[in-house]
């Protein structure tokens, strides 16, 4: 199973031009992908640099019409013409999709600090090998460090909750109707733009290096050991940041650790201010 994660900056390249066709072409070249996880998908936001209010959701969903499109905007507000403006995450899956959750992440207020509502899409997909896998994609807060840390801790706790839930037999009333408990496999991929560098407090809050049984592992380190993460921002002269570094990751739950066959970053494209991240999983090892 191949999963691609990419903060597309609403389609704005390092040249300052919004061009969603470039995004679509790059994703196609990195494929074939089973699941595509995109951050900063914008619809109807006229004021974004380089843009004219493009309907990113419609353009991307149409381009990948053989995929199930799961939209998870963290920002949703009126546009003024009867339509909505949205900004957030998009998960595209060409695998069958079971349960889907759209989470708003915690955002404890910080006086005098700008911040944005942040979300996480969580979807259960059924692989070709018949192995169900949860895929989560998110984009953590950039400006407010307290919010980012709270969100990182939430992602750690979410996986721990699912692991505990797996040990609970369903109650009779949880077998049908809206109370029915969907299949929630512990095997999971967590990807996105986490707005923190490796080994920082926020990164550690997800992986929790103090806990040998931490529910998340950094997939890059599973595959590449002590080799530093490649930069995922700052490579192509965009208007930020002032230096290249990594803040985009693939994490996997412990049951998937042995299935990680490759993790790589596309350092060539300048179609966004971020670089795509790709993970390949050999799920036959779990059958």
TrEMBL record:
Where is the Endonuclease/exonuclease/phosphatase domain positioned along the sequence? 4-274
GO MF term set: endonuclease activity
Give the top-rank taxon of the lineage listed in the UniProt record for this protein.
Bacteria
**Repressor listed as a keyword:** no
The alphabetized list of GO BP terms reads: GPI anchor biosynthetic process
Q: Which InterPro entries match?
A: Endo/exonu/phosph_ase_sf, Endo/exonuclease/phosphatase, GPI-anchor_lipid_remodeler
Extract the Pfam families matched here: Exo_endo_phos
Q: Which Gene Ontology cellular component terms are annotated?
A: membrane
Which key words are in the record? Endonuclease, Hydrolase, Nuclease
- Keyword DNA-binding appears in the UniProt entry: no
From the Swiss-Prot or TrEMBL record, give the protein name: Endonuclease
């Amino acid at each position: 199973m191949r999963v691609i994660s990419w903060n597309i900056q609403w389609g704005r390249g390092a040249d300052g031009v919004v061009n969603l066709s470039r995004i679509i072409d790059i994703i196609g070249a990195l494929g074939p992908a089973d699941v595509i996880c995109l951050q900063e998908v914008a619809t109807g936001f006229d004021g974004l640099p380089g843009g004219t209010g493009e309907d990113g959701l419609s353009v991307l969903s149409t381009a990948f019409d053989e995929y199930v499109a799961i939209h998870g905007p963290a920002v949703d507000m009126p546009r003024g013409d009867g339509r909505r403006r949205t900004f957030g995450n998009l998960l595209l899956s060409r695998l069958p999709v079971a349960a889907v959750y759209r989470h708003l992440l915690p955002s404890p207020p910080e006086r005098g600090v700008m911040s944005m509502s942040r979300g996480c899409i969580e979807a259960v997909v059924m692989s070709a090998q018949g192995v169900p896998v949860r895929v989560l994609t998110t984009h953590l807060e950039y400006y407010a460090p307290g919010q980012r840390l709270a969100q990182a801790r939430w992602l750690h706790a979410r996986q721990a909750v699912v692991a505990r839930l797996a040990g609970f037999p369903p109650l009779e009333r949880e077998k049908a109707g809206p109370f029915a408990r969907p299949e929630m496999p512990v095997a999971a991929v967590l990807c996105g733009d986490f707005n923190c560098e490796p080994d920082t407090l926020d990164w550690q809050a997800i992986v929790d290096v103090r806990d040998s049984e931490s529910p998340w592992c950094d997939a890059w380190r599973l595959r590449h050991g002590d080799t530093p993460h490649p930069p995922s921002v700052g490579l192509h002269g965009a208007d930020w940041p002032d230096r290249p570094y990594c803040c985009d990751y693939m994490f996997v739950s412990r049951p998937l650790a042995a299935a990680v066959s490759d993790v790589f970053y596309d350092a060539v494209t300048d179609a966004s201010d971020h670089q795509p991240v790709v993970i390949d999983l050999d799920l036959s090892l779990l059958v």
